[in-house]
Amino acid sequence: MVHENPLLSPSTLPYRLPDYARIRPEHYLPAFEWAFTEHLREIEQIATSAAPPTFENTVVALEESGRMLEDVAHAFYTVASADATAPIQQVDEQLAPLMAAHEDAVRLDARLYARVRAVHDQLDTLTLSEEDRYLVERHHREMAHAGAALDADDKARLSELNRRLSVLTTTFEKNLLADTNELAVVFEDAADLDGLSEGELSAAAEAARGRGLDGAWVVTLTLFTGHPYLSSLTNRRARERIMAASRSRGSRGGTHDNRGVLRDIVRLRAERAALLGYPSHAAYITADQTAGSPEAVEEMHRRLAVPAARNAAAEYAALQEIADRSASPHQIAAHDWAFYTEKVRAARYDLDRAALRPWFEAERVLKDGVFRAADALYGLSFRERDDLVAYHPDARVFEVFDADGSALGLFVLDLYTRDSKRGGAWMNPIVSQSAMRGTHPVVVNNLNVSKPAAGSPTLLTLDEVTTLFHEFGHALHGLLATVTYPHFAGTNVFRDFVEFPSQVNEMWIYWPDVLAAYARHIDTGEPLPAEIVRRLHDSEAFNQGFETSEYLAAAWLDQAWHRLSSGEVDAEIDVAEFEAAALADIGLDHPAVPTRYSSAYFAHIFSGGYSAGYYSYIWSEVLDADTVEWFRENGGLTRANGERFRARLLGVGGSKDPLEAYRDFRGRDAEITPLLARRGLTA
């Protein structure tokens, strides 16, 4: 019965937060089925209306439709990524083809498209606001791009391709989660983990206990190829085991092997692109992004790859010198890079980043760092709501208030790793802001920080501090966008623009007022010494050859797979050989600098939303680096600067062409010079 399913009636909790305390896994599929039916009924009313198409009865009506489905989907996919228990995974597998079929039933509806196109054809005669006009343009463009203009036979084939791809991408994610858990590295002797801090050892012991391995230590794997522990573990064999486990995910045969899955994904995406009139999936994707074409993406890759590889080679030589002088000389391998990098950093800058963790206690970083910067820029304040239950006990809920004291929305933080959570870090909406619907935003940040034993503090690495600030930049985008239509809410912007606000938010990590507030020693309360801060600044471009190369290698692999035409995808293609050839082509095939993600565990592109779009991070960083220059030139962390950034960029969400919004903020197009300088890629 409808009334017995908490997903099928509006939530009575503040901000329409889903009532996760009442929602059980068996509620999701019936809720989706009901919401599908309701949405199709609404679409049928629009498509069969006897009235001539207008902005109100077609485009606005389309925006008003599907509200129940959006609510159910946001509630479910939040859980499916952050707490994918076996019952949730079963729902996800059953749901994937149903969701694909439903989306096609809406966006490929010829009657609906004809009405949207009719309104689009009238645009120059209609009196509409800028947001209204852009809404018409986007609906028309997105439906055409999805295939709404195809004939019936081609639409049927397209829907079948979309259905099969939805199943395959879900399978890829499931395989990766299972293999990542299976490959967690078990150590029987704490001596093998020499170099880890007390907190890190506590987290490894806690992870072992969670698997019933009392007396052992378990190192769980991160999504990316490397692992934070590789920089401090003194035991070379331990480093090698962790790196080997990470790189073997999804490609060691057996039930969870992703190589066949990804080959099928690439082949079907190429076939779909051809059906839609594009030479490749990359051409299809970039056509509706700010980049415009895969050729523009390639031009940037090749421009950056040469100096990045050159710098990585120089860095490697410095590492090898130290290894040659060690008690047991050896050739630097991928699992050695992070460890010897810290030795070089210590020698060059007298800086041990692993020793900084006592200054980065998670609660202080959050409240006196992340929240403090948001207050200084935008006047935001945060109050924890212990009375509100999220989807997992580790997920904390904060109410967010604007500068005038008015309620803005909810922020949910889910900090810790667990076996049911996918790797990496991300932000997603649980409720989207919309003036038309009268909804305020509810957004969640997920990270994968190792959880220490009860009673022990959570001490972050500097990289984890960066991730927390970065993901909160996405959260700010979701919280501060103020739009009329849900289509434009929060981070609903072009994929190669979405990383820009989050990257900008990283600049406040080292801002003096912010750093002095949050970087205080866990035992003494003393601030991070000024001399160490200076060394951190001095070393900002250090190891950028490696970091840029490993990122560009992954972004290039993404393009290489997705620039294949439908006739070029061989079902028997050897994944390892393909990767090697692609990386050699762009000169990023240094054996000690592995790609940030190898294909079989590249979730961003084979189960996430970044297919042919992983270049977005560096593409957005051009805007980010240029924006950081603007902030510094204009006084930095001030309310005036924050309000300008909020009003002209964060606040518009997706309701404006992103590059137009950037020009409105900056007064010109972005320049690449600040990025080149930041990454040490100048001559």
Based on secondary structure, the structural category is alpha+beta
The major pleated sheet works out as: 5 strands, mixed
Strand order across the biggest sheet?
3-4-5-7-6
Architecture (CATH level 2) name of the largest domain = Orthogonal Bundle
Q: CATH topology of the largest domain, which one? A: Neurolysin, domain 3
What portion of residues is helical?
40-55%
Q: Averaging pLDDT over every residue, what do you get? A: 97
What's the helix count?
Answer: 25
CA-to-CA gap between the ends?
68 Å
Query: How large, in whole angstroms, is the Cα Rg?
Result: 25 Å
Number of strands: 7
Query: Which segments are poorly predicted (pLDDT under 50) over 5 or more consecutive residues?
Result: none
- Principal-axis shape equals globular
User: What CATH first level of the largest domain would be assigned?
Assistant: Mainly Alpha
DSSP strand (E) fraction? 5-15%
Number of domains: 4
